[in-house]
């Protein structure tokens, strides 16, 4: 890590409720491409090379803390018990950030911020040797946003929209809420910040005004892409941001070889890895920590979550796969459902209307259609007939079914687990298997068939007699 970056602390403000989301979940945990909103600024900070990160939490803080403990254990947590404004939030973390030379402050609800923008701010802050640097951007309609006021004498102020006078309301340069402060300078002014404003809060913008009374003490970095700095405050914002993020993600993958028939209807999460020459049909969704290798084809309207797929496999849509691994040249679907640590080995097939749960389908084996395979291990080159079910649950516990290599399972076979079937064994169609099948054996377990002669004639006669009685 760059030694200068080691002198930086990063404080991400995530204590607010986000009332306009109308949710019991804090705003920073609202799902955005199946990741919490706060995932994105955290990733941008990390990708910018900044490592000393703390999240300031308040409303729903236990939920945020639990998420960080699971996904970002290296990130610290600082509590703000009362939410009295951004300056109050920064002051709540003062004991932590004063150990560093610089502190970056940004909101946890700016998911479009990019690492390059943060790196540029850090670089310009260090080169300018200023006490404070912050990002601004220009808007045609700045209504509702705080304005950047540059005075003729070089001093800088940030004025809230509700506090601005007519002349200030005409300014189109907007404060982004992303700052870097020299910690010594910030410590000197933070106690001076008051709440005499329309919002009745202690705002960190006042620190900029106090530092910026002298020319050159505040460095403003104008960002060309204003969309990066827009916050997510409502469900509408969430949807619009998801569209922008998804377009950005898919464009990046297409520059690296992804073939996407319709980027407008395809959704790819930020943690997904796609090899070159992956082909995705319209309507497909890929989420979580999925990793798709080169040459894979994903069929229309398939949904994949936490899936690894090896080279040249095919998923025919629509299919739903989660927490599973698909081997090379395997074929899945259409209308297949795989879940719960399922493994489909190389060149295997899981076909139409087949559900597989927590099972292993061996190399070259086939489960072509209309079957349920749960808690099972199937060896290589085995064929599973239509309608086969592994009866794995006895009402209290799950049990295992083991089917060997090069077996032939007849249609409509029921395996009542725990049960096993040796290599090269067979079952007759319609069998209910309750005992182990030895290697090379044929298992037949079904009731004797009885044929009743002249049944159709009897039905016709009885039907006419019944009709006559009803008519009489």
């Amino acid at each position: 890590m760059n030694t200068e970056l080691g002198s930086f602390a990063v404080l991400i403000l995530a204590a607010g409720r986000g009332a306009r989301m109308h949710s019991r979940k804090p705003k920073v945990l609202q799902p955005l491409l199946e990741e919490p909103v706060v995932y994105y600024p955290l990733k941008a900070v990390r990708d910018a090379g900044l490592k000393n990160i703390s999240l300031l939490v308040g409303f729903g803080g236990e939920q945020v803390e639990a998420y960080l403990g699971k996904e970002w254990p290296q990130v610290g947590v600082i509590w703000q018990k009362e939410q009295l404004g951004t300056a109050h939030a920064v002051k709540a973390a003062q004991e932590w950030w004063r150990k560093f030379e610089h502190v970056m402050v940004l909101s946890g609800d700016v998911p479009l911020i990019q690492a390059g923008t943060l790196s540029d701010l850090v670089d310009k802050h260090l080169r300018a040797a200023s006490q404070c640097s912050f990002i601004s951007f220009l808007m045609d309609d700045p209504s509702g946003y705080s304005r950047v006021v540059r005075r003729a004498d070089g001093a800088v102020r940030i004025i809230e929209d509700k506090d601005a006078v007519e002349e200030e309301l005409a300014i189109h340069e907007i404060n982004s809420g992303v700052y870097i402060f020299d910690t010594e300078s910030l410590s000197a002014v933070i106690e001076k910040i008051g709440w005499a404003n329309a919002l009745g809060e202690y705002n960190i913008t006042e620190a900029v005004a106090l530092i910026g009374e002298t020319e050159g003490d505040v460095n403003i970095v104008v960002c060309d892409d204003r969309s990066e700095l827009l916050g997510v405050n409502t469900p509408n914002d969430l949807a619009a941001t998801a569209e922008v993020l998804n377009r950005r993600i898919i464009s990046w993958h297409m520059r690296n070889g992804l073939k996407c028939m319709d980027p407008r209807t395809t959704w790819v999460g930020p943690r997904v890895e796609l090899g070159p020459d992956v082909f995705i049909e319209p309507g497909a969704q890929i989420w979580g920590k999925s990793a798709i290798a080169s040459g894979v084809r994903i069929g229309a309207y398939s949904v994949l979550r936490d899936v690894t797929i090896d080279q040249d496999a095919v998923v025919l849509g629509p299919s739903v796969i989660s927490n599973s691994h698909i081997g090379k040249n395997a074929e899945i679907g259409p209308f297949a459902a795989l879940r719960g640590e399922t493994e489909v080995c190389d060149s295997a097939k899981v076909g139409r209307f087949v559900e597989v749960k927590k099972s292993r389908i061996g190399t070259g084996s086939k489960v072509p259609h209309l079957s349920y395979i749960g808690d099972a291990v199937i060896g290589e080159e085995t064929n599973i007939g239509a309608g086969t079910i592994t009866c794995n649950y006895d009402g209290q516990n799950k049990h295992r079914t083991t089917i060997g290599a090069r077996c032939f399972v007849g249609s409509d076979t029921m395996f009542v687990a725990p049960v096993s079937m040796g290599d090269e064994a067979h079952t007759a169609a319609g069998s209910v298997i309750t005992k182990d099948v030895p290697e090379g054996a044929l298992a037949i377990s079904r009731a004797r068939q009885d044929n009743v002669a002249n049944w159709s004639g009897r039905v016709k006669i009885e039907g006419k007699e019944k009709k006559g009685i009803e008519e009489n």
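Residues 261-443 form a domain with the UDP N-Acetylglucosamine Acyltransferase; domain 1 fold (CATH 2.160.10.10). The chain is about 20% helix and 30% strand.
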